[in-house]
Amino acid sequence: MADYIYTLETRLTPDQQKAVTLVLDTAKAAGMNLYLTGGAIRDIITGFPIRDLDFTVQGNALKLQKDLERAGAVVGGADAETRSLLLTLPGGVRVEIGMARSERYDKPGKAPQMAPATIIEDLRRRDFTVNAMALSLNEGSRGLLMDPFNGVADIEAKVIRVLHNYAFLEDPSRMIRATRFSTRFHWPLEERTQARYESGKENNYIEHIRSSSIGHEIEQLAYEDDAHGVLKAYEKEGWLKVLNPRWSVAKVDTAGLGGLMKTRQQMNELGYTPEVAPAVLHFLTERLGDKDISDLRRAIPRKDLVEAWKDLDSNAHSLAKRLSGKEAATPSRTWQLLSSARPEMILFLAITARKQAVTQKIKNFFTKWRQVQQKIPLPEMTELRITPQMPTYPKIANDVFLLLLDGKLRSRTETLKFLKPLAPPPPPPPPPPSAKRGRGAKAAAVAAVVAPPAVAIGKPGAKGKGKVAAAPAAPVVPIKDKFAAATKPAVPAKPVAAAKALPAKPAVPAKPVAVAKALPAKPAVAAKVSKPTKAPAIKKPSKPAKPTKPAAKAKAKAGAKKKRK
Asked: What are phi and psi of 79, to 5 degrees?
């Protein structure tokens, strides 16, 4: 089964997702089951733009009105008969919430008898298979698609099919709707549907259309991407005279409507999403009389759309006057004025402004002045530590842009000169490293303990007695090896540098003195110790004699006596 919840979340805009969450929470608090129905499901599956959101609740939708208004919803209309609401939620999202109901027609053109019903019965009363689907948003069945008339298959086949044989007879406005859908999607009517459509035209079913249905179809024209194309199809089929007897394609401002759609596309690319429905109705009825325009406005059920259509001219005139005055005397002031204006007003004024100066300022706002933003030295600002993480960064960037816009900063050097005083102070230096710890510190301590002290050197009774010479440095045993050194016999040390200082000729051996007692003739084997100890101070003769072997000396003396004899 397809994951329709995932598809729903990926296809909706962020504002539409918030609208779904808001309506769901409100319905849940009221204890009502909620379903997404109608055109929203069709557009999600087909990939076409999702124009509005249609919800169906099992209960009285009018009970949700106050809670939704507290959440920021604007009520555009309410129908006590069908118990439905027309709303505009935050972000400009159009929403319709209706009660799940059944409809029974006693006579063509007469209002149906309505009664609360289940969601499946509500789907049976709808017009076409592609619109008779519902997606559950309730716990336990969230993501379940209800499609009793196989509308998904007709979407894949790209055909428009009525639900039953008397669809056009019960509600003749469905013939107008079939023409609109066929023009928008470029889908043909299914064969039997086409036959019933032709039969309805021949038998003049359209005479029984209700006035509320006429207003609904006029309103839907305002939301079409190709409203002029739909209007031409209506005129060809004869439906335009049904909406208004004096309405024709010739009464449409074709150039203004084309410019409106082109400018809207440019604004969309820049991130603006203006609501074009009031302006579309303005250009569609540009050459109609005031009375005909008033009749069309009275028929439209969504009153907030009507008010926006009425106020379009006056609001645009007010904005044009401000753009011509001191409030827009400089490029920076004009930028700030247009940035705070409603996108709908800018869009409409860009098409209808008569003063060249006003038109040029709006053109610069969308083209030339936006290129100035590329002159902001962002890399240099980063080097100065002026980054988006700063609370004042938006103001600094905006001030630089406005000064560049007015030409008060003409070069990068001037810009950097302006930015340097605004840079934050440099960060504090890092803390000093902590004292040595661990094995390195312990090894240094052991070296200090093992190092031998200074040794007194000199002959007994000589004048140089008492002179002190530095003892040779003892090898430092690393801590990790001190236990190994304690268990192995020490290797006898080689003669040290003191031997190098002896004279070349051997000296007469001195009498045994304290030095002989202190220094053994043979190297002793090191004793096993667990801890290093301090070496005792040893007094050495100032000129130590080279040790000789007594046996060799005696043999040499005996040889000398024999030669004398």
From this structure: -115, 110
